[in-house]
Known about the structure:
Elements: E1 24-29, H1 34-42, H2 53-61, E2 66-74, E3 77-87, E4 97-100, E5 109-110, H3 117-133, E6 136-142, H4 150-153, E7 158-169, H5 174-179, H6 183-194, E8 198-201, H7 208-222, H8 232-242, E9 246-253, E10 256-266, E11 269-277, H9 286-300, E12 305-310, H10 318-324, E13 329-339, H11 342-353, H12 371-378
Parallel strand pairs: 4-6, 11-12
Antiparallel strand pairs: 1-2, 2-3, 3-4, 3-5, 6-13, 7-12, 7-13, 8-9, 9-10, 10-11
Amino acid sequence: xxxxxxxxxxxxxxxxxxxxxxxxxxxxxxxxxxxxxxxxxxxxxxxxxxxxxxxxxxxxxxxxxxxxxxxxxxxxxxxxxxxxxxxxxxxxxxxxxxxxxxxxxxxxxxxxxxxxxxxxxxxxxxxxxxxxxxxxxxxxxxxxxxxxxxxxxxxxxxxxxxxxxxxxxxxxxxxxxxxxxxxxxxxxxxxxxxxxxxxxxxxxxxxxxxxxxxxxxxxxxxxxxxxxxxxxxxxxxxxxxxxxxxxxxxxxxxxxxxxxxxxxxxxxxxxxxxxxxxxxxxxxxxxxxxxxxxxxxxxxxxxxxxxxxxxxxxxxxxxxxxxxxxxxxxxxxxxxxxxxxxxxxxxxxxxxxxxxxxxxxxxxxxxxxxxxxxxxxxxxxxxx
Length: 384
């Protein structure tokens, strides 16, 4: 029997956990269910822009999968998990599926910082039943370094450490935040300011086209994978879908824009999302002053944390060292990998590349049966 594509608004689920059936339900929402999606997120203690329906619509329009928010409610508690469902064989849309997360930091979010074991058990049982019903073979998700998600997932597959990320504590005073910068970072920021670099938010999106061209040139210069080659249409879509959550900042010398970046503000969390600069101005490092300006703007806007991310692939590379100059505060970046149907997973691995033990590949890639055709996609990380 093939999986149904019915993403019904609510269905009772869970057994054997002591929670009455009338007090538990699993809703599976599409991005078109905007009001219900917002309502579910309004019930959780914390989330980021990566969890929003609008951000998942962007992923859908880029062909990354069919977005769904799995919302479990039980005994006054709510757990919500956003994922992108994909056909294993695109020519068979009613067949096997797997699931992945959007680009960035996603994973489950909950209404309380501590959830009773019985509720977690019931949530996990309901999730497994729903995935089996839809013939989901495997699940992969990047988790959020600032949100505690481990307890919600323990017992379902494996949580793997990838590397460290960097953040600035915005609940400190501005002077304390600045003092937390390395001497080198402070010196370069001052040098950029002395060179005449001025950073401002571009709320009207006047420089959207210029920003898109600059970003494309930067990705070409660094030899980025095709999955990072966003065009102007992507940025227009992103800014339109996320509205007041995402902001474009530009760094200029006179009338020349020398750097630009996107920064989010969602539920007290500011993320440095995507940045780029003109190669001829690399020596004065305008992006550092841009990040510093966004940090001060975030603090003034009531954010509690400015998250810069980490290095490429979780490595402590030059990108990580750049970010580490802003703070000595670190967070663990992890991924969640769950083989729901082990027999089918192993069969797919054998069929794709003849390796029965494919599940033991480098943790940077999951599910293993997709690595032949999607290595660039799954090796990407949200820090670049």
